[in-house]
UniProtKB/TrEMBL annotation:
<keyword id="KW-0411">Iron-sulfur</keyword>
<dbReference type="InterPro" id="IPR058240">
    <property type="entry name" value="rSAM_sf"/>
</dbReference>
<dbReference type="InterPro" id="IPR007197">
    <property type="entry name" value="rSAM"/>
</dbReference>
<keyword id="KW-0408">Iron</keyword>
<keyword id="KW-0479">Metal-binding</keyword>
<dbReference type="GO" id="GO:0051536">
    <property type="term" value="F:iron-sulfur cluster binding"/>
</dbReference>
<keyword id="KW-0456">Lyase</keyword>
<feature type="domain" description="Radical SAM core">
    <location>
        <begin position="77"/>
        <end position="314"/>
    </location>
</feature>
<dbReference type="InterPro" id="IPR040086">
    <property type="entry name" value="MJ0683-like"/>
</dbReference>
<dbReference type="Pfam" id="PF04055">
    <property type="entry name" value="Radical_SAM"/>
</dbReference>
<dbReference type="GO" id="GO:0016829">
    <property type="term" value="F:lyase activity"/>
</dbReference>
<dbReference type="InterPro" id="IPR006638">
    <property type="entry name" value="Elp3/MiaA/NifB-like_rSAM"/>
</dbReference>
<protein>
    <submittedName>
        <fullName>DNA repair photolyase</fullName>
    </submittedName>
</protein>
<feature type="region of interest" description="Disordered">
    <location>
        <begin position="1"/>
        <end position="22"/>
    </location>
</feature>
<dbReference type="GO" id="GO:0046872">
    <property type="term" value="F:metal ion binding"/>
</dbReference>
Amino acid sequence: MPPYDDDPQAEQVMLPPSSLKVQKGRGAVTNLQGRYEADVRETFDDGWEREGEEPKVWRTHVTEETARSILSRNQSPDIPFGVSLNPYRGCEHGCIYCFARPTHSYLGLSPGLDFESKLFAKMNAPELLKSEIAKASYTVEPIALGVNTDAYQPIERDLRLTRRVLEVLQECEHPVGLITKSALIERDIDILGPMAEKRLAAASITLTTLDPKIARTLEPRAAAPARRLRAIRTLTDAGIPVGVSVAPIIPFVTEPDIEKIIEAAHDAGAVMASYVVLRLPWEVNPLFKEWLEAHFPDRAQRVMNRVRDMRGGKDYDATFGTRMHGEGVWADLIRQRVEKAIKRCGMEGRGRRFKQLDCTRFQRPVVVPALGARAKRAAAAGQMDLF
Protein backbone atom coordinates (compact mmCIF):
# COMPACT_ATOMS: atom_id res chain seq x y z
CA MET A 1 0.00 0.00 0.00
CA PRO A 2 1.53 3.36 -0.99
CA PRO A 3 2.05 5.80 1.90
CA TYR A 4 0.22 9.08 2.30
CA ASP A 5 1.99 12.09 0.91
CA ASP A 6 1.86 15.53 2.54
CA ASP A 7 -1.39 16.45 0.81
CA PRO A 8 -4.33 15.79 3.18
CA GLN A 9 -6.55 15.39 0.11
CA ALA A 10 -4.45 12.59 -1.33
CA GLU A 11 -6.62 9.50 -1.79
CA GLN A 12 -3.95 6.81 -1.77
CA VAL A 13 -5.37 4.38 0.75
CA MET A 14 -6.29 1.05 -0.83
CA LEU A 15 -9.10 -0.98 0.64
CA PRO A 16 -8.42 -4.57 1.77
CA PRO A 17 -8.87 -7.09 -1.05
CA SER A 18 -10.96 -9.46 1.08
CA SER A 19 -14.74 -9.19 1.44
CA LEU A 20 -15.97 -6.78 4.09
CA LYS A 21 -17.07 -8.53 7.28
CA VAL A 22 -19.13 -6.53 9.73
CA GLN A 23 -18.01 -6.89 13.37
CA LYS A 24 -20.94 -6.97 15.80
CA GLY A 25 -20.74 -4.01 18.16
CA ARG A 26 -18.03 -2.28 16.14
CA GLY A 27 -18.29 0.61 13.71
CA ALA A 28 -15.23 0.08 11.50
CA VAL A 29 -15.38 -2.83 9.09
CA THR A 30 -11.60 -3.32 8.92
CA ASN A 31 -8.41 -2.43 10.79
CA LEU A 32 -7.19 -0.07 8.09
CA GLN A 33 -3.48 0.69 8.23
CA GLY A 34 -2.50 4.06 9.71
CA ARG A 35 -0.61 6.53 7.53
CA TYR A 36 2.57 6.45 9.64
CA GLU A 37 3.06 2.68 9.77
CA ALA A 38 6.21 1.51 7.99
CA ASP A 39 5.14 -2.10 7.46
CA VAL A 40 2.54 -3.05 4.89
CA ARG A 41 -0.27 -5.42 5.86
CA GLU A 42 -2.38 -7.30 3.35
CA THR A 43 -5.36 -9.48 4.20
CA PHE A 44 -5.45 -12.87 2.52
CA ASP A 45 -6.88 -16.34 3.07
CA ASP A 46 -4.13 -18.69 4.28
CA GLY A 47 -6.47 -21.67 4.42
CA TRP A 48 -6.57 -21.90 8.20
CA GLU A 49 -9.96 -20.25 8.63
CA ARG A 50 -12.53 -22.98 8.27
CA GLU A 51 -16.09 -22.37 7.22
CA GLY A 52 -18.36 -22.04 10.24
CA GLU A 53 -15.57 -20.93 12.61
CA GLU A 54 -16.28 -17.97 14.87
CA PRO A 55 -14.67 -14.76 13.53
CA LYS A 56 -12.04 -12.93 15.56
CA VAL A 57 -13.60 -10.88 18.35
CA TRP A 58 -12.18 -7.41 18.89
CA ARG A 59 -12.25 -7.08 22.65
CA THR A 60 -11.75 -3.75 24.36
CA HIS A 61 -8.34 -3.26 25.97
CA VAL A 62 -7.58 -0.23 28.16
CA THR A 63 -4.03 1.01 28.76
CA GLU A 64 -3.57 3.26 31.76
CA GLU A 65 -1.12 6.06 31.01
CA THR A 66 0.46 9.04 32.72
CA ALA A 67 -0.24 12.08 30.57
CA ARG A 68 2.30 14.86 30.12
CA SER A 69 -0.27 17.61 29.69
CA ILE A 70 -4.04 17.73 29.86
CA LEU A 71 -5.36 20.95 28.32
CA SER A 72 -5.37 21.32 24.54
CA ARG A 73 -5.67 24.75 22.97
CA ASN A 74 -6.78 25.70 19.48
CA GLN A 75 -7.16 28.89 17.50
CA SER A 76 -9.47 27.50 14.82
CA PRO A 77 -11.89 30.27 13.76
CA ASP A 78 -14.77 27.82 13.22
CA ILE A 79 -14.60 26.08 16.63
CA PRO A 80 -16.55 27.79 19.45
CA PHE A 81 -14.07 26.98 22.21
CA GLY A 82 -10.38 27.60 22.81
CA VAL A 83 -9.54 25.00 25.47
CA SER A 84 -10.51 21.34 25.65
CA LEU A 85 -9.81 18.35 27.86
CA ASN A 86 -10.02 14.70 26.85
CA PRO A 87 -9.56 12.06 29.57
CA TYR A 88 -9.35 9.24 27.02
CA ARG A 89 -7.68 8.44 23.70
CA GLY A 90 -9.67 6.20 21.41
CA CYS A 91 -13.40 5.72 21.88
CA GLU A 92 -15.41 2.55 22.37
CA HIS A 93 -18.56 4.11 20.94
CA GLY A 94 -17.11 3.21 17.55
CA CYS A 95 -18.76 5.99 15.52
CA ILE A 96 -17.58 5.37 11.98
CA TYR A 97 -17.52 9.08 11.12
CA CYS A 98 -15.42 10.17 14.13
CA PHE A 99 -12.94 12.87 13.14
CA ALA A 100 -10.62 11.73 15.97
CA ARG A 101 -9.92 8.33 14.41
CA PRO A 102 -6.75 9.51 12.59
CA THR A 103 -5.12 10.40 15.93
CA HIS A 104 -4.54 6.68 16.57
CA SER A 105 -2.10 6.75 13.66
CA TYR A 106 0.28 8.78 15.81
CA LEU A 107 0.37 5.84 18.21
CA GLY A 108 1.27 3.35 15.50
CA LEU A 109 -2.24 1.91 15.65
CA SER A 110 -5.08 1.66 13.18
CA PRO A 111 -7.76 4.36 13.02
CA GLY A 112 -10.14 1.46 12.28
CA LEU A 113 -10.91 -1.28 14.78
CA ASP A 114 -7.89 -0.37 16.93
CA PHE A 115 -9.34 3.09 17.59
CA GLU A 116 -12.48 1.67 19.17
CA SER A 117 -10.90 -1.31 20.94
CA LYS A 118 -7.40 -0.19 22.06
CA LEU A 119 -8.12 2.66 24.44
CA PHE A 120 -5.88 4.83 26.62
CA ALA A 121 -6.93 6.38 29.92
CA LYS A 122 -5.10 9.43 31.27
CA MET A 123 -5.14 8.35 34.90
CA ASN A 124 -3.57 11.56 36.20
CA ALA A 125 -5.98 13.87 34.33
CA PRO A 126 -7.61 15.40 37.48
CA GLU A 127 -4.25 16.05 39.15
CA LEU A 128 -2.77 17.57 35.99
CA LEU A 129 -5.82 19.81 35.58
CA LYS A 130 -5.56 21.06 39.15
CA SER A 131 -1.86 21.77 38.69
CA GLU A 132 -2.50 23.62 35.43
CA ILE A 133 -5.27 25.92 36.65
CA ALA A 134 -3.32 26.70 39.84
CA LYS A 135 -0.58 28.47 37.85
CA ALA A 136 -0.44 32.23 38.21
CA SER A 137 -0.24 32.51 34.41
CA TYR A 138 -3.48 30.56 33.86
CA THR A 139 -6.31 32.59 32.31
CA VAL A 140 -9.75 31.12 32.83
CA GLU A 141 -12.07 30.36 29.94
CA PRO A 142 -14.69 27.61 29.57
CA ILE A 143 -13.18 24.15 29.12
CA ALA A 144 -14.83 21.88 26.54
CA LEU A 145 -14.83 18.39 28.04
CA GLY A 146 -14.85 15.30 25.83
CA VAL A 147 -14.64 16.94 22.40
CA ASN A 148 -12.10 14.68 20.70
CA THR A 149 -13.28 11.41 22.24
CA ASP A 150 -16.38 10.96 24.38
CA ALA A 151 -15.70 11.63 28.07
CA TYR A 152 -18.65 9.35 28.96
CA GLN A 153 -17.74 6.32 26.85
CA PRO A 154 -18.37 2.94 28.56
CA ILE A 155 -15.00 2.67 30.38
CA GLU A 156 -15.87 5.84 32.32
CA ARG A 157 -18.33 3.82 34.41
CA ASP A 158 -15.43 2.15 36.20
CA LEU A 159 -12.55 4.62 35.80
CA ARG A 160 -14.58 7.76 36.69
CA LEU A 161 -11.94 10.13 35.31
CA THR A 162 -14.54 12.51 33.91
CA ARG A 163 -16.30 12.73 37.26
CA ARG A 164 -13.03 13.45 39.05
CA VAL A 165 -12.26 16.20 36.53
CA LEU A 166 -15.71 17.71 37.15
CA GLU A 167 -15.08 17.62 40.89
CA VAL A 168 -11.95 19.73 40.37
CA LEU A 169 -13.85 22.21 38.19
CA GLN A 170 -16.70 22.43 40.70
CA GLU A 171 -14.29 23.04 43.57
CA CYS A 172 -12.66 25.92 41.69
CA GLU A 173 -15.92 27.21 40.19
CA HIS A 174 -14.49 26.83 36.72
CA PRO A 175 -16.93 26.90 33.74
CA VAL A 176 -17.27 23.78 31.62
CA GLY A 177 -19.18 22.64 28.55
CA LEU A 178 -19.74 18.96 27.81
CA ILE A 179 -20.70 17.11 24.65
CA THR A 180 -21.59 13.42 24.63
CA LYS A 181 -23.64 10.63 23.09
CA SER A 182 -23.94 8.81 26.41
CA ALA A 183 -26.70 8.80 29.01
CA LEU A 184 -23.98 8.23 31.61
CA ILE A 185 -23.81 12.02 31.93
CA GLU A 186 -26.93 11.70 34.12
CA ARG A 187 -24.73 10.17 36.84
CA ASP A 188 -23.03 13.54 37.37
CA ILE A 189 -26.16 15.67 37.71
CA ASP A 190 -25.31 16.14 41.38
CA ILE A 191 -22.26 18.11 40.20
CA LEU A 192 -23.58 19.67 37.00
CA GLY A 193 -26.89 20.85 38.48
CA PRO A 194 -25.37 23.13 41.16
CA MET A 195 -22.76 24.34 38.65
CA ALA A 196 -25.48 25.20 36.14
CA GLU A 197 -27.27 27.30 38.78
CA LYS A 198 -24.16 29.46 38.88
CA ARG A 199 -23.87 29.53 35.06
CA LEU A 200 -20.81 27.28 35.21
CA ALA A 201 -22.03 24.27 33.20
CA ALA A 202 -23.86 23.47 29.97
CA ALA A 203 -24.25 20.23 28.02
CA SER A 204 -24.78 19.18 24.43
CA ILE A 205 -26.10 15.82 23.31
CA THR A 206 -25.15 14.58 19.85
CA LEU A 207 -28.15 13.12 18.04
CA THR A 208 -27.29 11.81 14.59
CA THR A 209 -30.43 9.84 13.78
CA LEU A 210 -33.73 8.76 15.35
CA ASP A 211 -33.55 5.36 13.64
CA PRO A 212 -32.18 2.78 16.12
CA LYS A 213 -31.30 0.38 13.30
CA ILE A 214 -29.04 2.96 11.61
CA ALA A 215 -27.61 4.03 14.98
CA ARG A 216 -26.56 0.44 15.80
CA THR A 217 -24.25 0.37 12.78
CA LEU A 218 -23.28 4.06 12.67
CA GLU A 219 -22.40 4.47 16.37
CA PRO A 220 -22.71 0.92 17.74
CA ARG A 221 -21.80 1.37 21.41
CA ALA A 222 -23.31 4.80 22.00
CA ALA A 223 -26.68 5.22 23.71
CA ALA A 224 -29.74 4.54 21.55
CA PRO A 225 -31.46 7.64 20.12
CA ALA A 226 -34.47 7.31 22.44
CA ARG A 227 -32.15 7.05 25.44
CA ARG A 228 -30.33 10.24 24.42
CA LEU A 229 -33.63 12.07 24.19
CA ARG A 230 -34.46 10.88 27.68
CA ALA A 231 -31.08 12.17 28.87
CA ILE A 232 -31.88 15.60 27.40
CA ARG A 233 -35.13 15.65 29.38
CA THR A 234 -33.42 14.49 32.60
CA LEU A 235 -30.67 17.13 32.35
CA THR A 236 -33.19 19.84 31.47
CA ASP A 237 -35.39 18.96 34.45
CA ALA A 238 -32.28 19.29 36.64
CA GLY A 239 -31.79 22.88 35.45
CA ILE A 240 -28.86 22.16 33.14
CA PRO A 241 -29.07 23.94 29.75
CA VAL A 242 -28.88 21.33 26.99
CA GLY A 243 -28.34 21.73 23.28
CA VAL A 244 -28.51 19.16 20.53
CA SER A 245 -25.77 18.63 17.97
CA VAL A 246 -27.14 17.15 14.77
CA ALA A 247 -23.85 15.74 13.61
CA PRO A 248 -22.84 14.57 11.23
CA ILE A 249 -25.51 15.03 8.60
CA ILE A 250 -24.96 12.20 6.11
CA PRO A 251 -26.76 12.60 2.77
CA PHE A 252 -29.43 9.94 2.13
CA VAL A 253 -28.67 8.24 5.47
CA THR A 254 -29.41 10.67 8.31
CA GLU A 255 -30.14 13.78 6.26
CA PRO A 256 -33.83 12.98 5.55
CA ASP A 257 -34.66 13.29 9.27
CA ILE A 258 -33.05 16.67 10.04
CA GLU A 259 -36.32 18.32 10.98
CA LYS A 260 -37.58 15.35 13.03
CA ILE A 261 -34.33 15.23 15.03
CA ILE A 262 -34.50 18.92 15.93
CA GLU A 263 -38.20 18.70 16.81
CA ALA A 264 -37.66 15.62 19.00
CA ALA A 265 -34.76 17.29 20.82
CA HIS A 266 -36.83 20.43 21.37
CA ASP A 267 -39.72 18.40 22.76
CA ALA A 268 -37.24 16.74 25.14
CA GLY A 269 -36.11 20.14 26.42
CA ALA A 270 -33.14 21.20 24.27
CA VAL A 271 -32.77 24.98 24.10
CA MET A 272 -30.54 25.20 21.05
CA ALA A 273 -29.41 23.19 18.03
CA SER A 274 -26.33 23.11 15.83
CA TYR A 275 -25.18 20.88 12.98
CA VAL A 276 -22.13 19.63 11.09
CA VAL A 277 -22.15 17.91 7.71
CA LEU A 278 -20.13 14.73 7.20
CA ARG A 279 -16.36 15.29 7.38
CA LEU A 280 -13.92 12.74 5.93
CA PRO A 281 -10.37 13.74 6.91
CA TRP A 282 -7.45 11.36 6.44
CA GLU A 283 -8.28 7.70 7.20
CA VAL A 284 -11.91 8.48 8.02
CA ASN A 285 -12.47 8.66 4.26
CA PRO A 286 -11.70 5.03 3.34
CA LEU A 287 -13.15 3.73 6.62
CA PHE A 288 -16.46 5.47 5.95
CA LYS A 289 -16.54 4.18 2.37
CA GLU A 290 -16.06 0.64 3.66
CA TRP A 291 -18.92 1.16 6.09
CA LEU A 292 -21.14 2.46 3.30
CA GLU A 293 -20.40 -0.54 1.09
CA ALA A 294 -21.08 -2.93 3.97
CA HIS A 295 -24.32 -1.37 5.21
CA PHE A 296 -25.75 0.75 2.38
CA PRO A 297 -24.42 -0.69 -0.90
CA ASP A 298 -27.57 0.41 -2.70
CA ARG A 299 -26.88 4.10 -2.07
CA ALA A 300 -23.12 4.28 -1.46
CA GLN A 301 -22.36 6.03 -4.73
CA ARG A 302 -25.21 8.51 -4.30
CA VAL A 303 -23.98 9.41 -0.83
CA MET A 304 -20.43 10.09 -1.99
CA ASN A 305 -21.62 12.05 -5.01
CA ARG A 306 -23.63 14.34 -2.75
CA VAL A 307 -20.68 14.67 -0.34
CA ARG A 308 -18.50 15.80 -3.24
CA ASP A 309 -21.20 18.27 -4.31
CA MET A 310 -20.75 19.95 -0.92
CA ARG A 311 -16.94 19.75 -0.97
CA GLY A 312 -16.08 21.38 -4.27
CA GLY A 313 -15.81 18.03 -6.06
CA LYS A 314 -13.55 16.46 -3.42
CA ASP A 315 -14.30 13.89 -0.75
CA TYR A 316 -13.21 16.46 1.84
CA ASP A 317 -12.04 20.06 2.02
CA ALA A 318 -10.46 21.14 5.33
CA THR A 319 -10.74 24.88 4.64
CA PHE A 320 -11.73 26.91 7.71
CA GLY A 321 -15.22 28.35 7.36
CA THR A 322 -16.54 25.63 5.03
CA ARG A 323 -15.27 22.37 6.53
CA MET A 324 -18.12 22.17 9.08
CA HIS A 325 -21.06 23.01 6.82
CA GLY A 326 -19.80 22.53 3.28
CA GLU A 327 -20.55 24.79 0.34
CA GLY A 328 -22.70 24.87 -2.75
CA VAL A 329 -26.39 24.30 -3.45
CA TRP A 330 -26.87 21.20 -1.30
CA ALA A 331 -24.98 22.62 1.66
CA ASP A 332 -27.09 25.76 1.46
CA LEU A 333 -30.27 23.68 1.33
CA ILE A 334 -29.24 21.83 4.50
CA ARG A 335 -28.47 25.13 6.22
CA GLN A 336 -31.91 26.48 5.33
CA ARG A 337 -33.64 23.33 6.55
CA VAL A 338 -31.82 23.49 9.89
CA GLU A 339 -32.52 27.19 10.36
CA LYS A 340 -36.22 26.81 9.54
CA ALA A 341 -36.60 23.84 11.86
CA ILE A 342 -34.97 25.81 14.69
CA LYS A 343 -37.29 28.75 14.00
CA ARG A 344 -40.40 26.56 13.95
CA CYS A 345 -39.42 25.16 17.35
CA GLY A 346 -38.89 28.61 18.80
CA MET A 347 -35.25 27.90 19.57
CA GLU A 348 -33.80 31.01 17.92
CA GLY A 349 -31.58 33.01 20.22
CA ARG A 350 -32.04 30.62 23.14
CA GLY A 351 -28.42 29.48 23.20
CA ARG A 352 -27.10 32.48 25.10
CA ARG A 353 -26.50 30.42 28.25
CA PHE A 354 -23.88 28.45 26.31
CA LYS A 355 -22.02 31.62 25.35
CA GLN A 356 -22.38 33.29 28.74
CA LEU A 357 -20.81 30.80 31.11
CA ASP A 358 -19.48 32.77 34.07
CA CYS A 359 -15.68 33.05 34.29
CA THR A 360 -15.69 35.58 37.12
CA ARG A 361 -16.27 33.04 39.90
CA PHE A 362 -13.04 31.13 39.30
CA GLN A 363 -10.85 30.49 42.34
CA ARG A 364 -7.44 28.90 42.04
CA PRO A 365 -6.99 25.60 43.88
CA VAL A 366 -5.83 26.07 47.46
CA VAL A 367 -4.11 22.68 47.62
CA VAL A 368 -2.32 21.34 44.58
CA PRO A 369 -1.44 17.62 44.62
CA ALA A 370 2.21 16.76 44.16
CA LEU A 371 2.87 15.02 40.87
CA GLY A 372 4.41 11.57 41.09
CA ALA A 373 7.92 10.99 39.76
CA ARG A 374 6.58 9.48 36.53
CA ALA A 375 4.22 12.41 35.98
CA LYS A 376 7.02 14.90 36.60
CA ARG A 377 9.24 13.22 34.02
CA ALA A 378 6.38 13.19 31.53
CA ALA A 379 5.57 16.86 32.10
CA ALA A 380 9.23 17.85 31.74
CA ALA A 381 9.49 15.99 28.45
CA GLY A 382 6.56 17.92 26.99
CA GLN A 383 3.81 16.54 24.75
CA MET A 384 2.73 17.26 21.24
CA ASP A 385 -0.64 19.04 21.16
CA LEU A 386 -2.53 16.28 19.37
CA PHE A 387 -5.26 15.13 21.70
